[in-house]
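Supplementary Data S3. Sequence and structure tokens for construct A.
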Amino acid sequence: LGLPRDKALKDALSDYYLIIGGVAATNDLPRYRELVRSLIPPEAQLRLWDDCYERDGRKETLSDACEPALSNEESRNVVETLRGHPDIVPSLTYRLSQAAALTKVLEAQIVKGEAVIALIDAELGPSR
């Protein structure tokens, strides 16, 4: 359709989507998640997903009224296994640094997105 015509809008859109593409690339499943899920017994994970987790569109809810899948002793053993795994702390540290950087990028993206919206509004003119 030949839109957008405005060079500033084209540049702003290109910049916005370039950054979003980079953000998507960093959103791979973190190693920490893989490690934790590989160390927690399957019966506990299945109980969580089957009995304690609900999803309605984008809203996710974890119930705090679930019956424990593991005994206190089993839970204690899982915690000790997690604490003792040599890759847990480094992988969590890496994930936290990713999240901190991603937060900054996304905050800047909000500002860029609002600027793009303003440019689109200016390009299209007032709504009727």
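Construct B, processed identically:
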Amino acid sequence: AIGMLVAHSIPFRAIRAGKQLSDSKGSSAAITTEAAITAVKRSMMGFLGPRDIFRNPEAIFRAFEGPGQLFSRLDRDGNLIGKPNSAASDASPFDLVLSRAGDDFAVMGMHFKIGLYEHQSAGASQAIIDLVNKNPTLLDAPAGGNGGDSISKIKIVAYEPAYGIIGDPAKMNPTTRQSADHSMAYIIATLLRKAIKIHASGTTPTWHNLMLSPMDYAPDAITNAETRAIMHKIEFVHGGDEYDARYPDGIPTSVVITDADGSTHDSGMVMYPAGHARNTTADLQALLDAKFHMLGGYVAEDPTPIIDRYRSLESKSAEVLQAINNIELPAAAKSFDG
């Protein structure tokens, strides 16, 4: 089943490349899962896929990693030229470990998104929140000016693949929600626009009140003039080996904001933003509860009963789990895209 899935459904970054992204970008995990279940069912009925997907010299993994081809080349008649490479004939470019027991599962080292944003932008988001709380005057509107005028430049330094995926210059002018949530400039500019508004009301900007929602990716939000003005102040650069070596252990990112007077405010390197498994300072449960209620509020005045259905999954019976998504929800009077 694994051979069948991997040989026929290898994901690349094409779903996240280009100016405007498709609906399937946000569904890639579900699409892969759907294909995996189909492969398992076929295998259970005796339909077999490739037996060796990692050592096969024609496998995609061998095109990028590990030993070269099994033989140097073929002559015009198809005869093998050169001696067999014993290492190439028997070596996998990496180890694949499938665990069925223990507690060292990859999910335990993952990252819960606090609100809606691309995973790679979490370090920059945390850096922005830290900076504006430490230097609230960055959010002030100068005399005769607007909120955001106190900031002249925002420099974001991060690692690959963050720089390549959400720092792509093509993402500097997103026109769809799919591309907006894969634009570092848009995400950070939206976060700052909300922070400026919250600060003006006399409230401290925090993850709880800056949490990006679906409406932050609505058509009118994507074209918001204040957001666009902030986007033009953002510079995104690759941090090189110093940053690359620290990913995926963390989400290494730093932000330097230059104010209107030319003074700089440096966040330093952020490794474990709120939501990351290795973060030890944020109240993750409270943040997730706030996120669940924010999203649940789109379908129910009081989403608590719906949220509670999904708590303590490990103690629920198979019968309850089979019906857990059977919920009657009212249809919205207007579509999200207007």
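Residues 68-74, 83-88 have pLDDT under 50 and may be disordered. The chain is about 35% helix and 10% strand.
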